[in-house]
Each structure stands twice: as C-alpha cells, then as structure tokens.
Amino acid sequence: MIGAADRRVPLAPAPMLALFGVFATLPWWIDAVGLYPYLGVEIMIWVVFALGFNLLLGTSGLPSFGHGAYFGVGAYAFGLAQFHLHPNLWICLAAALAASVVAGALVACFISHRRGIYFALLTIAFGQIFWFVAIKWHSVTRGEDGLLNIRRPDADFGFVAWSLQSNEALYAFCFAVFALTVLLLWRLVHSPYGRVLAAIRQNETRARFVGYNVWLFKWTAFTLSAAVAGLAGGLFALAQQSAYPNVMSLHQSGLVVMMTLIGGGLVSFWGPVLGTVLFFLARDLLGAYTEAWLLWYGLLFMLIVLFKPEGIAGLFHVRSKPSA
Amino acid sequence: MFEASHLHKRFGAHVVLEDVSLRFAVGRLTGIMGPNGAGKTTCFNLLTGRYAPDRGRVTFEGRDITGLPPRLIARLGISRSFQIMNLFDEYSALDNVLVATPGVRRRGFAVLADLSRDRALLARAREVLARVGLAGKAAARAKDLSYGERRALEIGVALAAEPRLLFLDEPTAGLGTEGTARIAQLIQELKRSITLVMIEHDMKFLFGLADHIYVMHWGQVIAEGTPAMLRANPWVQRSNLGQLG
C-alpha cells in the first residue's frame, strides 16, 4: 500500500484533495441530495477513527479487534474532563488524547510481542475489559446510561472564540481536525517510520536481523493508533454531546474493522475512507427503506470478501508494474 | 575478531551443539561444512542472536555479545543472510535494501521525513543492488523476482546493513551451475572488504573460496584447517565429505 521509497511522496495527493474538496463543500450541497450536514460530521469522525485503525491493520499488519475501547476512552475522557477538570475545549480534547494514549500504551505493553491471531484475541480481551469497566464503574461512568449533557465548549483561540453550538460551526471544527489528521497520517505512513512498520508486517524476523527493535515499533504503532481513536472519540463526545458504553462494545469495534476491510485498507491508504462513506450511506439510504439494512450490508461484506478480498480500493488500485 | 568458545545448545533432550569453538579472523572467509543436521544453522543462530547458547561465550572485537538480541548484534556490524529466504516480499528490490541500511535504521522513528529526498541514501542502496547484480531490477517487487534473483537480493539485504562481519547461510542453495558461479564471483568480490563466514554444502564451491574451514558433525567440530589441510585429513577423506574431485 506504500509506493516505492524512491518516488517523491506528494504532500497532498489527488485523492486527498478530492476528499477535502467533497467535505469542505458538503454543507452546501448535502441537503440537495436528500441528506443532512450532521452525517458529514459522523463520517469525518469515523474516517479519522478508521484511518488510525488502519495504521495498525493495513500498515503494520496488526489486527486489533477491540479498537472501539480507545474510541470510547477518548469519548469518556472528553466528558469527564469537562465535568471535573475544566470545561475548555482544548483541555477536553487533550484529555481524550492523553487518556487513550495511556490506555493504548498500557495495553500495548502486554501485546506487542504477539502477532496474528494471538494479537487479535488479546485486543478483543482488553477491549472487553474497557467496555466492562464503562458499564460497571457507575460512580464515574454513569453505567449503561453513560455521560449525558456534555456541552460543546467554545473553540477559544485566545484572540477569538468560536461557539460550536450551531451544527455549521461544529462541522467546520470537525473538518479542521479531520483534515489535519488525514494530512499527518498520510505523512506518517510514508515516512521512514511507516516504511519500517510495513517492513515488519512483511517479515518480522528479517526486520529484527537488520537491527530494528520490532517490539518498540509495534508498541508505538498501537499507542499512536489508540491516540487517533481517542481523538475521534473526543470529537464524537463533542458532536453527540454524550459518551456511552455502546461505543466500546465488540460490535462497534467490529464496525471499524468492516469499514476498513470493505473499503480496502489492506491495499490503499484511502480504503478506510471509502469503507466509512459506504457504511454511512448504506445506513441512511438502505435504512430509509428497511430496518434490516445491516443484513444487506452484511451480505455486501460477504460478497466483497469472496470476490474482491482487497476491498473497494482494490477495484481502482492498479499495481505499479515493475518498470525494469 | 570474532570468537565463539565452548558453545553448548540443547533443544529439550536433543543436544544440537556440544563444545563448539570457532574463530573468524579479519578479512578472511571462513567456511562451515557438514552434513544436514550437523548444527551449522543452529550455530549461526547462536552467533547472530536468534537463540542464546546454554553455555559458552561469544565475543566480537573483544566485546562479549553472548545472548544479545539480533537487533543489537546487527547494530554492532554483524549481518546475516538466510538459507530459507527472508525478504520483504511486497517491497521492491530497492526498498528491501533501503530498509536494511543504517541510514534508514537511524531514522526509523522519523515520522515526518521523506526518504525520496535523500539522494545519498538512495544512491547507496542502488550501489548495493548493483553489487549483487540487481541494478536493473530495482523497481521489481521481491516476490516477482526469479529464484536466483531472490538469492542475490537475500545477500543484498544483509549487505545493505554495511556489516564488517557477514554470515552467509548456504548462499547457493537451490541454484544451478550458472547461478552458483555468479554468487561465487560476488563472494570473491565481497571478500576484499568484509570478513565472511559461510555455511555451504557445495564442497567445490567452498574449497575454492574459503581460507579456513570448520567441519561439523553431530553438533561438534570434527576437523578444521585450510582447504589444503582438510584435503589431506584422513577423517575428512574417509567420510563422504571429502569427495572433492
């Protein structure tokens, strides 16, 4: 999924510009196609989550099936920071990031020496622990109800403060965070760091024998990926004005895996974007006709796994032919 | 330069190495030969950090490296190739070599850098490819290369780490006469700048290149010496190892 190292990596390639173009203008045309701007917010949040997730799955080859946990930790941390620490937007977002980094780093300590199915099973186990804590630690997390009435603090830049009360302002803010994250992750995946992660995915043993600390690379990749999930979770709490255990459930963790695989995260950086957009369109468009839309979505998933295991991006993805 | 003394290793009840001592002198090519299961590859695995020996000591340039993990041994300037090929299959030949260079290793955690801007680094990686005869295959993915080319790349990746001591585990395994001749030429050329240790089944090949040879059998060194000495060694002559033509 990464081009050859000797080819210059554009700062913003065509798919990125197209993506930014679509989402920058979305509030102006989305009503005309029968949808609504808040859908854009949801998609952007999940794209951030899925791209961060794919840093593990696609780039590093590490299947994390409990990634909803870090999304949830971010969402709860955002709310808790607002209630108990300071209702400032930056502090709340920083709390979401910090909490998910701590959670991710801790879990990574226990799983970074694993790979494949053992890695996957451990991520599920840890994900379930977080979910269970969210339900049972009633005095902090409010149990199954979750944190309600999270407010949307102003985006205070010192010289000017924007209210995020309106959905338009919220959209603009989420877009800014989304664009920045996409830019940074694109850069990261194509940096020497990303290339080493991809090398470890392809051959862990060889990576060790040419001198890489494989454990540390996996540990940092997991922690970074958890941080991005936590950021997405923080945005989710901001947008949804609540945080509840459901976002940490195995079911939610499965959704991000499906989005990434359907979209083609294994062959393309942009796969998770396609998968996320498709999921939400399916939910809203199919969901308008039938309550059983997940059934159709599930069938679509099966069809893709059967006939196009690389995912949707596999349809566009032209393997660069050896030039010599 | 490199010395292993009294190495012992057992896997369960099975003793694979028993009191093995080896010395590799600077600028020399040392060969290790012996039948299948003699413990040659296990020996390499102990010397390059894959396993720790149960007993014994390994030193490199006066430094005790016994039991160090592979990544630290690699960083000291010891590199190895594998008998069963161990490449980054999805990567191009150039990327395989590139990721093994100390230049990339030093910047492994550079999360925002762009390698394509580092012309010196790319040039060095291309040089390594040229050295192993793959100059024209830089853009081809490792898994699309022919068997012989993959063998060459296997050495290229080990070489890219810029080692002072290079272990080659059966570099000609599975190659025909032509491929073997090409590898012989490459090793001949490498010998001028790097200390080499090579496991090899092909006697003719090994005796033609090595300065010093250890013969292993049943996890022990049963003979050692220059090729000429070994040819005269009755032990070697009597075993089927000595059929050299």
Show the helix and strand layout.
The complex is a heterodimer of chains A (324) and B (245).
Chain A: H1 14-29, H2 37-60, H3 68-84, H4 89-111, H5 116-136, H6 138-141, E1 155-156, E2 161-162, H7 167-190, H8 192-202, H9 204-209, H10 214-240, H11 250-263, H12 271-289, H13 293-307, H14 313-316
Antiparallel strand pairs in A: 1-2
Chain B: E1 2-11, E2 14-24, E3 29-33, H1 40-47, E4 55-60, E5 63-64, H2 70-75, E6 78-80, H3 93-99, H4 102-106, H5 119-131, H6 147-160, E7 165-169, H7 177-190, E8 195-199, H8 203-209, E9 212-217, E10 220-225, H9 227-232, H10 234-238
Parallel strand pairs in B: 3-8, 3-9, 6-7, 7-8
Antiparallel strand pairs in B: 1-2, 1-4, 4-5, 9-10
Helix pairs in contact in B: 3-5, 3-6, 5-6
Structural descriptors:
heterodimer, A: 324 residues, mainly alpha, 2 strands, disordered C terminus, B: 245 residues, alpha/beta, Rossmann fold, six-stranded mixed β-sheet, four-stranded antiparallel β-sheet, 10 strands, 35% helix, globular
